[in-house]
Design a protein that fits this description.
By secondary structure, the chain is of the alpha+beta class. It is built from 23 helices and 44 strands. Helix 5 runs antiparallel to helix 12 and helix 20 crosses helix 22 (about 740-750). Bound molecules: zinc ion (ZN). Zinc ion binds near residues 132 and 243.
Length: about 900
């Protein structure tokens, strides 16, 4: 979400030297200005990641108060760094302080021991230079912050260094920093110097890099989780952003309602306290413009700020204004004199009142209004450095309290885990064993303690195999376990009793066992078991290759890993088919959709052995060709539409398809408009990001960037020409797969004889901005192979399909009207594509549709189609109303996409 654009660009402005001065007091390390040749925050200037890397290496070499560590690699292979800054004495005893921090956070020591440890320990504070790369100031300010905390000799800074271990991750998304820096420099001096690049600023996930902190799909998230939840357990985590409302300068805590009830109230109150300390410092340093309660709620889990809440940590996000090195004027005449709290379709709470304008009046959560005017890049830099020092000071001033508090909250969680649901059991040997393992690993990465059974055991009336996973919820981070494994019920937050509900800030439901189709049992009573605590994360248990294989092998379709195995075999030139019916071999029944691999001898055998070992899938030897009919598969040639608007859903799709061996080719607007698409089996059009409305989202594919808003090359979208090329591709036999609002694009442009039943619904009548919905799957259709009959789907402002009624008409892109009503005493107007072959593969359930999250008007989609195949010419369109791969979370629905792609290769 970005700032409401209240800015006017300065046409010509002299470069003004930055007012920001670093008090180095003659310390030895060079200042960032000396190292870079300009002060970070100077107009029009950005340091590169390489310059920063050398600066941090130099700072660590020259200062005994700074240590530099490599903590991982980015998606594109850049090194991720962590600086540890503290007094020389503290750095000499880091292991001891880390151990104290861990023992207090884990809450297992008794109160007396905890008090002794807290007295000895140091407050641990994480601050980062942000991960949203188009928010340019935070990556640039960290050299100043590091230098200042390491070298300033004020009484305050000495006290901070003595009391605090400061963990500084200077740049969380170095790939993005470089993508945006290069774009900015290439556009500098043109009308587009303040535009965002026409690509995602995280190679795969763009802005969603801050939606990945419980799944940890991306390497950057994994690296951070390791430090925060498994090594250092900071009591305070401060994550930088830049999307302040245009009339203010920085958004600080307190945040907005609702609060997730599983979060310890000590977190919320502690957070409010740190927010007040920040606001107080801005006031006394004469920095007007700090505002609180601007819509960032305390409900959602999954962001860098919010995951800490479920670990009893204070999670802070600030949103600072002015995100570009180009100077701007913020005209107070367009500021909202009155700040009105109303539901905002964008999800963020404050909406300005258009009727009144001028600098807002002071209010409790905006006590020092900013008068607006000319603004330079040094200002957000200064706000971020000052905000960071305010947080460090708050940590230092109340060191003992923060250390004691995290221990008390951990103890409360342990006590809560002694009643109610005490254990969560993830049975071994389930159909989605691969995803059960992924679930265990992401919980381990989040600092959860998990045991693995050495022997079979009984619990809650069930029998469990050795190898099953046991989570005793009597542990300090219990809120994280409960929140991720149990259903969410988002509260109905009406702004007034008769009014509209306030929509969730982000998604409202994310329950992982539902999304990942992993069985997790909840057990209240204690039971006996023999298990070993898992250290680190778990690897794959090798699968088996059973029986002799004179003909070949059978591979179940039930796990996602089996799809990966099938693609590896296809890529190696092996013969792989789907069985079109179930078949029996001896006593074993193989379901329809089973992969049948015809062996070419020793090479095939060796490949199968390797896949069983590496992916943990089981193969069954077949001595003769199965009795069932088989459909041969090829490795699909997949095109993935890549808009210059840079949809995150495209990045997630690309990541997923690469992970599973589908190796998609990216298709730009020009590629689609002018290219020959006939080499492809399938084209995927991802959901155009946006939460404003289904209509606007549909338009983004066709229209793209508006003319004049970006360099010519990047404007225009697919256009009618592109839509026509896609229609030709399908008519000639290709498969088009569309997600969410992209389905609306296909329906409208191809004149498909279906409609999205909620396309025109007002938000009051129908709103599901991010919940898990119950569906039934036709598992006899090839597109439903390997699925469970009932599946949770991830619905984010999605669609529900219905065949057009008898009188329904649709216009195609050539403005030809297709009507189902024919021959009222005359001849049919236009031959209507047969609608009898509208195959619904997935339907929203008839009742209890909402599984987790929040929904208004869900009855409008009950029983409607959630995923359908519509024949079109010689090809077909496969429309998804939900998002089968949303943020890499709903692993239970990946197969619906994979099947659509494999089916496209069957002749
Ligand atoms: Zn951001």
């Amino acid at each position: 979400m970005h700032t409401a654009d209240l800015t006017v660009r300065l046409q010509a402005i002299a470069v003004i030297a930055s007012m920001f001065v670093v008090a180095t007091a003659g310390a030895e390390p060079r200042t960032p200005a000396e190292a870079f040749g300009f002060q970070p925050g100077d107009d029009y200037k950005l340091a590169s990641y390489e310059q920063m890397e050398s600066y941090y290496q130099e700072l660590a070499a020259d200062s005994d108060r700074v240590q530099l560590r490599e903590i991982g690699e980015s998606a594109l292979g850049r090194t991720l760094y962590l600086l540890t800054i503290s007094s020389e004495e503290n750095l000499a005893n880091l292991d001891r302080y880390r151990d104290i921090s861990k023992r207090l956070a884990r809450g297992r020591v008794d109160t007396e021991t905890a008090d002794v440890l807290a007295n000895e320990g140091k407050a641990v504070v994480w601050i980062d230079g942000g991960l949203h790369a188009t928010e340019l100031a935070h990556g640039q300010m960290t050299p100043l912050l590091a230098h200042r905390v390491a070298t300033e000799e004020s009484a305050e800074m000495r006290q901070i260094r003595d009391n605090v271990i400061f963990l500084l991750m200077p740049v969380m998304n170095p790939d993005g920093l470089e993508i945006v820096r290069k774009w900015y420099e290439s556009q500098l001096g043109t009308p587009f110097e303040q535009t965002n690049p026409p690509e995602l600023y995280h190679h795969y996930v763009g802005h969603d890099n801050n939606r990945d902190f419980f799944m940890n799909n991306m390497p950057e998230s994994k690296a951070v989780a390791q430090v925060v939840y498994n090594e250092w357990y900071p009591q305070i985590v401060y994550n930088q952003h830049q999307s302040s409302p245009g009339y203010a300068r920085i958004v600080i805590p307190p945040y907005s309602d609702p609060v997730n009830p599983i979060i310890h109230p000590g977190v919320t109150t502690g957070l409010n306290e740190v927010g007040s300390a920040m606001g107080n410092r801005f006031a006394l340093e004469k920095m007007p413009g700090a505002i609180a309660d601007v819509g960032f709620s305390m409900w959602w889990n999954g962001g860098m700020r919010t995951v800490p809440y479920f670990h009893n940590m204070i999670g802070i996000l600030t949103e600072t204004g002015h995100d570009s090195p180009s100077p701007r004027i913020y005209d107070p005449k367009v500021f909202p004199k009155m700040l009105a709290y109303r539901a905002n379709p964008g999800g963020v709470g404050i909406v300005v009142d258009e009727e009144t304008s001028g600098v807002p009046d002071a209010r409790v959560l905006y006590p020092y209004p900013w008068p607006g005017g000319e603004s330079h890049f040094s200002e957000p830099v200064n706000f971020m450095v000052t905000g960071s020092i305010a947080v460090l000071r708050a940590a230092s001033d109340s060191r003992l309290k923060w250390l004691t508090n995290i221990h008390r909250m951990g103890q409360d969680a342990i006590a809560a885990g002694m009643s109610g649901t005490r254990y969560y059991i993830i049975p071994g040997g389930q159909p989605h064993d691969d995803e059960a393992r992924n679930l265990v690993n992401l919980l381990l990465e989040g600092g959860i303690e998990i045991e693995r059974a050495n022997q079979p055991f009984r619990a809650g009336g069930n029998r469990y195999a050795a190898g099953s996973f046991i989570i005793n919820s009597a542990q300090a981070f219990r809120p994280y376990i409960v929140d991720l494994l149990e259903k969410q019920t988002y509260p109905d937050t009406r702004l007034d009793p008769s009014g509209e509900s306030k929509p969730p800030y982000d998604i409202a439901g994310w329950t992982l066992p539902m999304q990942m189709a992993v069985d997790v049992d909840f057990v209240s009573d204690a039971f006996d078991y023999d298990a070993t605590r898992i250290d680190g994360v778990i690897g794959v248990d090798a699968g088996e290759v059973r029986g002799s294989a004179n003909f070949g092998y059978a591979l179940s379709h039930a796990s996602n890993a089996s799809i990966k195995a099938a693609n590896r075999l296809l890529g190696d030139g092996e013969s792989v088919a789907w069985s079109n019916e179930s078949f029996r071999v001896g006593r074993t029944t193989f379901d329809a959709g089973t992969f049948v691999i015809e062996s070419a001898g020793d090479e095939t055998a060796a490949r199968v052995e390797t896949l069983a070992r590496e992916l943990g899938v089981d193969f069954s030897g077949l001595n003769r060709r199965p009795s069932a009919s088989l459909s041969s598969l090829r490795l699909p040639r997949v095109g993935l539409y890549k808009s210059y608007v840079a949809f995150m859903d495209e990045g997630w799709s690309r990541w997923l398809l690469e992970e599973y061996g589908f190796g998609p080719v990216s298709l730009t607007d020009e590629d689609v408009r002018s290219g020959d698409l006939s080499e492809l089996d399938a084209i995927v059009i991802p959901h155009p990001d946006g939460r404003a409305s289904y209509r606007d989202d549909v338009g983004k594919i066709l229209i793209g960037h508006a003319p004049g808003s970006m360099p010519d090359r990047y404007v225009g979208g697919l256009g009618l020409e592109g839509a026509f090329a896609l229609q030709t591709f399908v008519r000639d036999g290709g498969t088009l797969v569309t997600f969410g609002a992209a389905s609306g694009f296909a329906i409208e442009q191809f004149g498909l004889p279906i409609r999205n039943t909620v396309a025109g619904a007002s938000r009051k009548d129908f709103s599901i901005p991010g919940s898990l919905l119950r569906t039934t799957v036709d598992t006899t259709d090839p597109l439903g192979y390997g699925m469970q009959r009932e599946a949770a789907v991830n619905f984010v402002n999605g669609a529900a399909f219905d065949v057009l009624g008898q009188a329904g008409c649709v216009d195609d892109l050539l403005n030809q009207r297709h009507c189902r009503e024919v021959s009222r005493g005359g001849r049919p107007l236009v031959e209507m594509p047969s609608v009898s072959r509208f195959d619904s593969i997935v339907n929203y359930a008839a009742e209890d549709v909402l599984m987790s999250g929040w929904a208004t008007g869900i009855e409008h989609i009950a029983t409607k189609s959630a995923m359908a195949r519509i024949p079109h010419g010689d090809g077909e369109v496969i429309v998804f109303g939900f998002r089968p791969q949303f943020r890499g979370q709903p692993r239970g629905t990946y197969k619906l996409l994979f099947n659509a792609l494999h089916a496209a290769t069957i002749d």
